[in-house]
Structures are given as C-alpha cells and as structure tokens.
C-alpha cells in the first residue's frame, strides 16, 4: 500500500472510534490555550501533555518558533478566544545543527538558482542553544504588540527531552 | 491545579509509558514525509491518520497553510530527508469565517494602535472556500522553487471532516 493509502486506511478505524460528543465539539478551544511546538517526528504533543480533543490549538513548525507562529497565535487569541501560550522546544532539535548560511548553501546545491534566489532574504530561524531559544521565544511573545495581555502574563516555556519523554520548565 | 501543572502531571505518566525504542528514535522522520494541517483543537492528526512516533514531520498552523509552512517544509526536505507532503485542511475551519480586513479591525479594537500598525502589511491567509484552498495550496507547493521534485510529484491534498472524523482526498 502507498503511504497515502495507509493514512486513509488508518483514518477509517479512527473515524469509527470517535464518539458523538467528539464529533460535535465547538470550534473555539475548550481550555483556551495554545501550544507552540516543533514539527519533529519524535514529538506527540497531545499524548505527551495530556491534551484532549477540543482542548487547545497546537501549532507546530520547525523548531517550535514563536515568531513563525505569530500569525496563528494572533488568530487563536483575537478570533478564537485563547488566552494562554505554552512554548515547548526539545532536545536534539534539528534547529541546533545548522546556520542560515548552511541551509542556503544546501538549497543552492540541491535546488539550483531560482531556489537560491527565493531563499536569499529568508530567516530559517535556527538556534545555537536550546534553553536560550526557549527564553528568547517567551521574551518575543511578551514584547509583541500582537499578543494579548493575559497571554503575556501567563506564557511559559518548556524543554521536552526526546530521550526520556519528560518536559522541564525553563520559563 | 493550574493548566500548566496539569500538562506537567499528564507528562509524568506519558514519559513512564514510553518504550526504550521510542526514546531512541533518530531525528529524521522514518517514513520521510511531512503533513501540513491546521492548529484546530478538534484535529488529532497522529491518531486520525495513524502516524506513529518517529514517522513524519507534522506542521500545524492556522488553516493548515502550505505557504505559512514553507520555511518548515524546506528544512524538512533539505536537511531531514522528507520527500512527500500531505496537506490536510478541515471542515468548519475558522479561516472560512473572516477576511484580512475583519481581523485587522479586531486587532485595532482589542490591542490598540501599535498592534494595528504591526499587522498592517500582514496576510492572515484566510480562505473563502475549503476545497479550492486545498487545491491552491497543492498548486503553491508544485510551483515553488523551494519544494523538491519528488515532493512536487507526490503532494496530495485532503479535507478532514470534523463532523465525522473522516478524510477525503481532493488532490
């Protein structure tokens, strides 16, 4: 079976396991918070943090970047009523392993001139130190005019350890 | 217990349930694909699509926007070896309910002048029609110089129905 066929087939059992109340959850997150975390394949944020269906927005991108998540967070807070943000980065993150110059060299080599040109001004948001990056993201949210006051007061930052499955609070 | 205490407490049972092989998964996704989907609280992509820990990058943002996900997808493909992208948007998405002008008016009203100024040039990427938005995102990826050829050839687009838990393929 192809990858996509596998996803569709797994979805058949999932959909038949959903309860009526799960199928009629409202659009706004029931627990009024958003989690920003990494796209990393070893993270399972809902299970790792006990987030039930309908509870929270989960935003994921390379590195769990708050800056990259700002569009989503603004929509989450201004249109869908969330008031708390939890930032979760993790050990052994890919973002610790390269610089903007590195990835741009890879792009130019693998994808050619048009891609090199397209990525010229881009910031891929790598970071050299994990806990500092958590602190910087929390500071970014606290100082953004687009983050609501309640979220500024309550924003917290965690590190998830892929080697143990545990989170530890940084901010 | 506070929201954050609850997350930490749930994490304790999760971490103790992780197997040794789950704790030693490698950084690059084992099945070499990435899913782009929405931050919506009613979506549980890993369970809904049978994605096991370590299989795939999962990128989530408001609307499951491929454009917003491009930085993450480039890192995923160029540095971590993924070759397939699956875009999954969903019914009853918040992005169907507003325009850029609407959210900018809300931002100005709720957050004041600095925020209004900060969001002036921003595109919040709302869409008026769901299946068209899936097709447009797939087209965006197929025409981006930053997407690798294998991913261009295999990109697919789905709608997840929050009312049934089922996915249906659009592209």
From TrEMBL, chains A, B:
The keyword Lyase applies. Keywords: Lyase, Metal-binding, Zinc. It holds the Pfam family Pro_CA. One of its GO terms (molecular function) is carbonate dehydratase activity. Its cofactor is Zn(2+). Zn(2+) binds at residues 38, 40, 90, 93. Binds 1 zinc ion per subunit. Its EC number is 4.2.1.1. The keyword Metal-binding applies. It catalyses: hydrogencarbonate + H(+) = CO2 + H2O. It is an enzyme of class 4 (lyase). Belongs to the beta-class carbonic anhydrase family. Reversible hydration of carbon dioxide. This is Carbonic anhydrase. It comes from Ascodesmis nigricans.
């Amino acid at each position: 079976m192809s990858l996509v066929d596998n996803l569709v087939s797994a979805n058949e059992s999932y959909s038949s396991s959903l309860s009526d109340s799960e199928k009629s959850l409202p659009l706004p997150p029931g627990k009024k918070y958003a989690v920003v975390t990494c796209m990393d394949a070893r993270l399972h944020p809902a299970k790792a943090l006990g987030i039930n269906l309908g509870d929270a927005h989960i935003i994921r991108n390379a590195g769990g970047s708050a800056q990259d998540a700002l569009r989503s967070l603004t929509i989450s807070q201004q249109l869908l009523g969330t008031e708390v943000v939890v930032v979760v980065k993790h050990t052994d993150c890919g973002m610790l392993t390269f610089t903007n110059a590195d990835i741009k060299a890879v792009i130019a080599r693998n994808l050619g001139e048009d891609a090199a040109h397209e990525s010229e001004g881009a910031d891929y948001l790598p970071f050299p130190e994990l806990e500092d990056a958590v602190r910087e993201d929390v500071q970014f949210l606290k100082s953004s005019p687009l983050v609501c006051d309640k979220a500024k007061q309550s924003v917290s930052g965690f590190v998830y350890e892929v080697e143990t499955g545990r989170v530890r609070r940084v901010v």
